[in-house]
UniProtKB/TrEMBL annotation:
Residues 1-32 form the signal peptide. It comes from the Bacteria. This is DUF3889 domain-containing protein. Keywords: Signal. It comes from Evansella caseinilytica.
Length: 106
């Protein structure tokens, strides 16, 4: 290798050594923890069925102390019959605490 090639390699290596590298962590959406609770509560209420799909339908701000997250879940029985349900997760955004969970067949 000649001197010019070595200089280019060293310069290239130094460039990466001193450049700040920022790793962007994948941030979970705000509803992620509430979707887990919606699924858990649905499984409790329908123990003979499994959750095969779910969809986050949105958040409704009821007051400064109440927000409702709505999820549509698809359940499937051992026989393959599917049943849609909705789970409503009510939370207090001030302290990020669960208030109530309600599951309805749709």
């Amino acid at each position: 290798m000649n001197q010019q090639t070595i200089t280019k390699i060293v310069t290239f290596m130094m460039l990466f050594l001193f450049l700040p590298i920022h790793f962007v962590a994948a941030q979970q959406p705000a509803y992620a923890e509430w979707s887990k609770i919606a699924v858990e509560e649905t499984v409790k209420q329908f123990p003979d069925q499994k959750v095969v799909d779910y969809l986050y339908e949105g958040k409704v701000v009821i007051s400064d102390k109440r927000e409702q997250y709505t999820f549509k879940l698809m359940l499937e029985s051992a026989a393959g019959e599917k049943k849609p349900v909705r789970a409503y997760v009510l939370v207090n955004p001030k302290n990020n605490k669960l208030i109530d969970v309600h599951v309805d067949e749709t």
